[in-house]
Amino acid sequence: IDQVYLAAAKVGGIVANNTYPADFIYENMMIESNIIHAAHLYNVNKLLFLGSSCIYPKMAKQPIAESELLQGTLEATNEPYAIAKIAGIKLCESYNRQYNRDYRSVMPTNLYGPHDNFHPSNSHVIPALLRRFHEATAENAPDVVVLSLIPIRR
């Protein structure tokens, strides 16, 4: 094996992150630790780790610079997930420094595509919004409630 692409993760929406914080931090740290270490043990020199944009502070200056990492408080709703992703980044950096590996981390944004997860409590922001808009349209609702905080007009 010449390269490893580490995109595996336990993911979910705000409700799932709030309900299962220990599962999110533990399972993601185990996935990252096991795969990154196995890549090293099998002498794989190149690894690409997919992190998450949630690793940056909640109030980071926009547009977010890489230097913002660990410079402020994380969003509370997904802090365990974010901490696990930060651990993966630091693990890659540590293998690079100690073992001269080429393990890199990239932070994809929230995306939407075919076969996305539209579950009412486990989806990410974009699919969750699309589901709510679809349901409101089907029910002829005058408003769409986002995160049960404020009504937003269609």
From TrEMBL:
InterPro entries: Epimerase_deHydtase, NAD(P)-bd_dom_sf. It comes from the Bacteria. One of its GO terms (molecular function) is GDP-L-fucose synthase activity. Residues 1-143 form the NAD-dependent epimerase/dehydratase domain. Coiled coil: none annotated. This is NAD-dependent epimerase/dehydratase family protein. It comes from Enterobacter hormaechei. The lineage of its organism: Bacteria, Pseudomonadati, Pseudomonadota, Gammaproteobacteria, Enterobacterales.
